[in-house]
Amino acid sequence: MILYSARLTHVRHRALSRKFTHSMKTWLVDLDDMPRSRLLEFRAADHLGSPDRPIRENLNAWLATQGIAAPARVSMLTTPRTFGYAFNPLTVYWCYDDEGTPVCVVAEVHNTYGERHCYLLRPDERWRAGVGKEFYVSPFLEVSGHYRMRLPPPDERLSLTVVLHQDGEPAFTATLTGRRVGVARPALVLREALFLLPQRVRFLIQRHGVTLWLRGLPVVRRQPHFEV
């Protein structure tokens, strides 16, 4: 389990331009060697599939519905549950075959309404991929358009980019950039648990939404989403 210190930036490009940035921490874990901690928990209930099966089994089952065999190795970048609370706007799974060759990337997106959706990505040699938007995330953006993502696996640096294009131009950009802090040790795990990251991230995102609403940005009606 490896910790990354990062900055999350959201930029709106249309209607009401606004930039929103805050610091956060995220963890890279091997799905076949999941950490066990009472302070930072990686629960299946917080991700795709059945809460009664391990995350790895749920991912394998979902990939099978997409015609993809179970990968030999999977790395997951996510924010763990802290003091019983979880909120993950984005979880990324990098899937590899026996030889370490990338098979695919899965981007699991959560909104503040308790819903989630998985996007299957087939990135090129520069880890770029595109996919149509199918999931309601921001109350100020319609479920339309096309995502262009660049999601290289983290090493010493972390650098992820998601751009939503609507009507032929960028409507929204999200970036997550940062650096590797180190492997998990008891003191580090305790410090990060006390940071209350999931609670903090949700509060900041919702505060940002309230600010946009107060500035008169119209709300897009949400339809219930049924997914894994």
TrEMBL record:
Q: Which InterPro entries match?
A: DUF1365
Q: Name the source's superkingdom.
A: Bacteria
Pfam families in the record, alphabetically?
A: DUF1365
Q: Write the protein's name.
A: DUF1365 family protein
